[in-house]
Specification:
- This protein is of the alpha/beta class and 314 residues long.
- It is 31% helix and 23% strand.
- The protein has an 8-stranded mixed β-sheet with strand order 6-5-4-3-2-1-14-15, with helices on one face. A 7-stranded mixed β-sheet has the order 7-8-9-10-11-12-13.
- α8 packs across α9.
């Protein structure tokens, strides 16, 4: 009899725990985020949740659509994340990438470039002037040559249009890169500080993509540009790591929405700095894929793939 009571108690506890765990499973809005029927007349950015299938961190990749339907992809994660990017593009019904942009040539930003170039029609590839003698860099340079895809190098002061309505400004780095003796040995910070800093402006709305800039480059940029950096949406530099997101840079940008693409919380202090300043701050490893859209009126619609089940970050 006691055995039966204990068994019943154990089963009750297991049932309660199962119900609790089930209740806390966040809703998955992947299909809603990757529904392209909502994109007309809007500048839309989809910050992808990438899943690494290798020893490299997953990295960054963002799919943008212009109000008139042009497609831009900024960064392509590491090679093993191609499946995530490919699935997202297919969900959106995209067969052509008009602008394929590499912020800088580290593997977690260019890893899937070659696969995308070979799998999709690509209007042009946009990069900085930085050359980086690694197998991943050579692989996508080879893909460019094979496919005959135009390769456009960008530097500070360059501008171009993303479709008919979105202005793209390149704010960093300056043209003319001087390589140090022994390059690329020990070049992590050197390469990161040469990340493209790109601002997209649609009427009264703006997005700023900051690659993996470190604090020393950020401070120089903030001192140089000041108010010109102000943007409604920020792709947080270097995945939200403590190497980046200096106070002068954060204050100059003044983002309403800040998105960190990472496999984990890089540094809680950085997350809290953005949140305390009033930015709605999202992390793809927790919130999943993130959609941010605007009609150009200075307001932003934000949708995350998952709801947070706790407030431990705050």
């Amino acid at each position: 009899m006691r055995y039966m009571r204990r068994l019943a108690l154990v089963l009750s506890v297991i049932l309660i725990l199962s119900i609790t765990v089930f209740a806390e499973q966040p809703a998955d809005r992947y299909d809603q985020i990757f529904d392209a029927t909502q994109d007309g007349g809007k500048l839309t950015a989809r910050f992808l949740k990438l899943t690494t299938r290798s020893d490299d961190k997953s990295g960054d990749s963002t799919i943008l659509t212009s109000p008139d339907g042009k497609v831009m992809v900024i960064d392509t994660g590491n090679p093993s994340t191609f499946l995530d990017i490919d699935n997202a593009l297919k969900a959106l019904g995209i067969t052509r990438i008009d602008y394929l942009v590499a912020s800088h040539p580290h593997v977690d930003h260019i890893g899937s470039m070659a696969q995308l170039i070979r799998a999709y029609e690509v209007g042009a590839v946009y990069t900085s002037e930085v050359e980086y003698p690694t197998s991943h860099y050579r692989n996508y340079m080879d893909a460019l040559a094979e496919k005959g895809t135009p390769h456009i190098t960008l530097a500070e002061g360059d501008t171009f249009m993303f479709g008919d309505d979105v202005l793209v400004e390149v704010l960093h780095p300056a043209s003319g890169i001087e390589y140090y003796e022994g390059y690329p040995d020990g070049s992590t910070q050197f390469i990161n500080n040469l990340s493209l800093l790109i601002k997209l402006t649609y009427k009264d709305s703006s997005f700023l993509f900051a690659g993996d800039l470190y604090t020393n480059a950020e401070r120089e940029i903030a001192a140089k540009y000041g108010e010109r950096l102000r943007s409604g949406v920020l792709k947080v530099p270097h995945h939200g790591a403590g190497t980046s997101s200096s106070k002068p840079f954060r204050e100059a940008v003044g983002a309403e929405v800040a998105v960190m693409m990472s496999d984990a919380i890089e540094e809680l202090r950085i997350y809290r700095n953005y949140s305390k300043a009033g930015s709605r701050t999202l992390i793809t490893s927790i919130d999943g894929a993130v959609l941010v859209a605007t009609t150009g009126d200075g307001e932003y619609t934000v949708l995350s793939q998952f709801d947070r089940v706790s407030d431990f970050l705050d």
